[in-house]
Every structure is written in C-alpha cells, then in structure tokens.
Amino acid sequence: MKVLKFGGTSIGSVSAIRKVIQIIQKSRQEKIVLVFSAFGKTTDRLIEMAESAVSGQAEESYAILRKTQEYHLDLMQAFLPPGEDRNKLAAQVSGYFANLKQMLTGLAALRDFSPPVRDEFLAHGELLSTTILSTVFRWISLPAVWLDARKIVATDSRFNAAEPKIDRIGQQVEQLLLPELNREAIPVLAGFIGSNRKGRTTTLGRGGSDYTAALLGAILQAQEVQIWTDVDGIMTADPSLVADARSIPVLSFREAAELAYFGARVLHPKTLIPAMEQQIPVRVLNTHRPDGKGTLILPELPPNGQPVRSIAYKEGMTLITIVSSKMFKSYGFLKKITEVFERYQIAIDLIASSIVSVAIALHENVHIKQVIRELQSFGSVGVVEKQAVVCVVGEQIRQKSGIAEQIFAAVHDVPVSMISQGGSEISISFICDEKHLPRVVPELHRTFFSASKSDRMQSHLTYPESVIAGMQP
User: Fold this and answer.
1) Euclidean distance between CA atoms 290 and 269, whole angstroms
2) What pTM was estimated for this model as a whole?
3) Where are the alpha helices (DSSP H) in 290-436?
4) Distances from the Cα of 36 to the Cαs of 19, 101, 131, 188, 227, in angstroms?
C-alpha cells in the first residue's frame, strides 16, 4: 500500500490533472491513498481575497472570489460532460463559494482575520479540489471515495499550526479509511486540514499536505509515501539560483530533514518525522516527468565518498544580538533569554554565544517588537533584518577534513554574521545578507559539485540499485 500526495502545481491545470490521472491509473495494481493540496495557487488567492476584505476592499475581494470560482468550474467542466453528475458537482462547488462569500462579508464588517477564522476559510481550497477530483475520478471509472480529512486528522487547537493527535488519528483511520481500502476503493483526502476535539477546522501550517500524507503513511504502515511535485526530486541547490543543479537520487532521512528545515522548498519541514519514526521511505517525484526516479529518502545510507549532498538557504531571517556584561560567568543567563522566545512560541533557528554576547537567528517575527522589549532588560540589543541562513548539508561533513575551509574560502568576500556547525553533525550554516544569495549559493555549488572532473564524478551521489533495494525496509 502506498500514499500518494499531489501538490497544487501538480493539479493546477487540465493538462496537469490528466497526468495525475495517468499516474493514479498506473498505481492501481496495489492499494493507494490519495492526498491533495488545493488547485494551483488557490490558497494564495484565498489569502489575497481575505486580506482585501479585512482592509475594507470588499468589492476587490468579491472580484477575486468570482475569478477563483470560474477557475474551479472550468477545471470541473473540462472533465465532466453536461448532465446530472456535472450539475450535482457544480451545486457543491457553488455551495463552497457561497460560504466563502458569506465569510468575506463578515471579514469586511469585523476587520478581523483571527487564526480560527483563517483556518476555516483556507480549508475551502483543499475541500474544493478533493470534492471535484473524487467526482472526476469516479466518472472515469476509478473507484474513488471522498473522505472528510477533518474527521480523520485529529489535532490540538493551535490554529494555523496545529499538532496532530496520533492516537485519535489512528482510531479514525481504522474506522473510516481502512474499510474503504478493504473494499478496494481509493480514498481521496484533503491535505493540510484537520479538526480539534470540538470539531473546529484546523490547519497543519502552510505546506502541511505533505505532513498529512506522512501521517497517514506512518499509521497505515505504508510501503512508501510519494510526494508528487513539479521538480525532479530534491536538488543539489535551488535551480532558480544554480543552473546546473541536479536531482539527488537518494538521501538519508537526516539529510532530507535538515534540508527541509533550512529552506529546501520541496518538502515541508515536519513531513519526514512520522515516516522517520516508522522507517517508511519517502519518494519525491515530478508529476510532469513521471518516469523519472526523483529522490528516494531512506532511514540510513552507507558512505559513498561525497561529504556534501546539497546547499539550502532560507530567506527572511532576523538576527538578534544581546550584549551584556552580566553574562560573564553567570549561571542560567542563556536559559532566561531563550525563555523569552518560548513565551511567544517563537522557534529559534540558530543560536551562538560568547562570554558576553548571544546571537540568535529566527524566521518568525510576528512578536518581534515585544521580544526585543523584553530582551533589553538583559543588555544592549541589536536587530538586523533581511538576513538569510545558508546551510551546507551532508552526512559525512564531520568525517571529511577541510570542508569548513572550502566553504568559507568560497564566500571569503561576503560578510558573514554568524557561523554554526549543527548538533546533528551533518551541516554547517552561516548567516549573511539576503542580497548575497545569488552569488553565495552558486559559488558553493561550484566548490562542491563542479570544481574538477573528479568532484563531478563524485557528485552524482548514486548507489547501485541492488544497494538501494537492500537498504529499504
């Protein structure tokens, strides 16, 4: 049994959906569960219309809503001929949009897009895509059955970034999903969304459809979780910055998780955790090139002589420095500083300290003003925005001498604010200004993947098929 997740770009057009149908038809020789994101850029459009309503631009928000509804109806009509099935589905789609319009009217009146309302509003994207697709699949004789993910993916009440309740999800999977698999149906579920104990809609955070797929794969003890997207797996670098970046055939869980956390855009950072715990392989594939091998992520890999696997980066970072003489030989000082971030539920990406200073890099800055006010009680506080963290990742970084020297030789003319060698022993990170990324990332890629003929030979990162097969659970 496999879990197949398709992202928005994989189902953003009629031609893309046709490719997805072909992939599903080829996968039918075994049991499958399908997880979908919203169509194309629908989530972005929903955010755009909601923000327009809250800012008092009601007519603009309704205009975006109308265009979004037309887009969904066009996709539906491309697959369903006139008749009862199309009319029934059109009524369902119109019902979703009527609800959205009612919510927009409320947003325009109250000028408040609170986290619970936001989750309820954004969930419509995935509800629409799965409702339409499950009907289309049945029309072409695929035995698809739509299941309400909100009744299966149980979460806590942290709206916008809810945490799943594994035990409750397991119970719901047994009651609602397994019976459909046992009768040879193909369950179709929305990614990204769930509900709390009171039945209120929650979301797992942006990109959380990957997380949904991994959760279901872990609970079902799937043979494999497949993440279908618009790139050929995980790359040696961002191809928008590095023209000769290439797909990595196989990665360890640790490497992939590190890359996901530090900005690799293919995977949601939380995606790998459920699969990792259950030793389930995750395969990242390209919907537009379904015959490609993509990237296979396995629990462990033997050494293959290539210390660096990929270079990731994350923009929008804020660097905060606290300088205080009170730190000198002071017990518990660092703990007090980190407790400030904990109170505001802000995750710290990187941290480094000296005798009298602490440097902290973070991506979230919603409560940054309140945090800075509290930190000023400890000493002098400096804040630098529009920073980026660049992360060089590979299982053998610490076993290979001279890697750090190569990294900083490659970026010797770029001011670096902070350096961190990860506690996971598989990465070296540093902070620089965002504007340097178009120069820094390609230069690092040349250093580790294109410096010489021998390096190019090593950088293929390949393993014999027999070795890969033997490493799978």
Assistant:
1) 24
2) 0.86
3) 333-343, 368-375, 403-410
4) 14, 23, 10, 8, 10
Task: For residues 451-473, give the mean pLDDT.
Answer: 48
Q: Which residues pair with 25 in a beta bridge?
A: none
pLDDT of residue 111 exceeding 80: yes
291 vs 26, 173, 204, 228, CA distance in Å? 11, 31, 31, 12
- Look-up: residue for tokens 């609602």? 176
Alpha carbon distance 28, 355 (integer Å): 61
Banded model confidence at residue 455, pLDDT cuts 50, 70, 90: very low
Stretch 359-373: mean pLDDT: 87
CB 313 within 8 A of CB 390: yes
* Domain ranges for the chain: 2-230, 310-458
Residue the block writes with tokens 């049991």: 31
What's the chain's average pLDDT?
Answer: 90
Show the beta-strand stretches assigned E in 122-248. 144-147, 186-190, 193-195, 201-203, 224-229
Closest CA to 107 of 93, 120, 124, 123: 120
Superfamily of domain 310-458: VC0802-like (3.30.2130.10)
102 contacts: CB under 8 Å, gap ≥ 6: none
Phi and psi, residue 241, nearest 5°: -105, -25
Please tell me the class of the 2-230 domain.
alpha beta
CB atoms within 10 A of CB 284: 27
Q: What is the spatial distance between Cα 435 and Cα 7, in angstroms, rounded to a whole number?
A: 29
